[in-house]
From TrEMBL:
Sequence similarity: Belongs to the GMC oxidoreductase family.
Keyword Repeat belongs to the record: no
Organism of this sequence: Oceanobacillus longus
Lineage: Bacteria, Bacillati, Bacillota, Bacilli, Bacillales
A Pfam family hit: GMC_oxred_C
Domain Glucose-methanol-choline oxidoreductase C-terminal: 429-552
Keyword set, alphabetical order: FAD, Flavoprotein, Oxidoreductase
Protein's name according to its UniProt entry: GMC family oxidoreductase
Amino acid sequence: MSTKLPKVPAVIVGMGWAGGIIAAELTKAGVQVVGLERGKERTTNDYLMGHDELRFQHRTELMQDLSKETITHRNNPNMKALPMRSYGTFIVGDGVGGAGSHWNGQTYRFLPYDFEIKTLTDQKYGPNKLGPGYTLQDWGMTYDEIEPYYDTFEKMAGISGETVESYGPRSNPYPTGPMVKAPAFELFEEAAKKLGYSPYMMPSANLSENYTNPDGIARSACQYCGFCENFGCEYGAKADPVVTVIPVAKETGNLDLRTHSNVTEILNDGSKANGVKYVNTITGEEFEQPADVVIVTSYVFNNVRLLLNSNLGTPYNNETGEGSIGKNYCYQVSSATTTMFYENHKFNNYAGAGALGIEIPDYVGDNFDHSDVDFIHGAGIRMTQYGYRPIAVNNVPSGTPSWGAEWKQQSIKYSNSTQQVKSQGASMPHRDNYLDLDPEFKDAYGMPLLRMTYDYTDADKELVKYMAKVTREIAEEIGADHYETTEEQAPFNVNKDTNTHNTGGVIMGADPKTSAVNSYMQMWEAENVFVVGASAFPHNSSFNPTGTLGALSYRAAEGIVKYLEEGGGSLV
């Protein structure tokens, strides 16, 4: 039997970037907030001298326990879905900070083209550019409308970078300058410029210099230790909700943060939420937390799953195209990579940072003509230096045995003698790529798991072929002794593919018939429920999603404060 608790103005489900930003903004406005996080609380002290690759990367200490909750996957609706049992494709965070603690820190804005992609594509190439089956749509807001929120997020996080004019106008430059240019990047830069491209340093949430943000939070510069993705930052140099927005919310005295609290249901009458039900993961006790507003800010998969398990919103039907919960799941397309092997040239590959990189903007969005290709959008072409790790990274030429003396010899030989020119491509939505509840598999609490139906589309495969030529061209201009290029996109494999960017399922838009939330992340079908995160993206750009997620979170927070002040109603 559940214990019913006193009602509060707002309850937040998930205390990562979206939850942390909204908690900070609401509590600064004087709103009493309950923040529910199913994992434990963490601080930078938990990461001191924590450069333990086995513990954090391979045993995934910061991640969700897949033995208790996972997803199931199938490549198409005719297949049986099976549970994901190991982290390959996705690394779903667990604990205060969520994925914002273990991310790499690459912090882009999406393009003006992204927000009006359907309209602009149809205007330039006609309405049938992608052919049938693709469910492309505009976002219900423009770049100019979201730009001030990007600016707010970047100032809060202290994003380090340099202005790129082709990415859209900015109200301010980045608050800190770009990160150091690694020696390999100088080779990339020289080659790219010779080919007529415009290389720039990647925008980074790994601070390039000491910085104090508008909330008075002071953080130190990055040490380039190479332990970002899968790891928390012991220096606080990597922007993380734990060292930025959550302390601000706590300082107000208006945040009641409850850890080990796993929300299993949004309580509702079909058109409005009454609160949430959650389980204490240590004691097993069940609680009901009534609230005026329910704000769902967990990971993409859990946002969708929680709505479906709560019978809130209309589930997407891929056969009819009706409904929006689960619609337009997108990934990213990253197989077009050229690896360069050097016989005598050495780099310091074991130093780096999660957002230390250089790339060109020439092949993103509609920055090049798509008239003669069978895809839209594009890819960032880049070279990065995250920092190699000896267990995870052993680059050897094709044909090398996967174990034994020769493998060891080649691993040592090329440990500091490889570089990659790679792509990260956009993902367009398709009718048959979606999320729903699995009819068979359940989690530790008896709730149905989320089922993903997803595979790369024909457009994705064409994009990879195209971008492989670009990565090869730049790599050959740089020069190496041996090249290997991935030119074809293999079928999606949930246990092996390595991009971590998931979007869609609770998408935003201007039309309630084709979207789940408006531009304030307010549900069309339940006005006091706000679903915030990358689940709102109608497609996935070629850029990492966190900057856009952060901007939408600030926009949502503004709307929630207004909603509470005005006593309800639609915000658009």
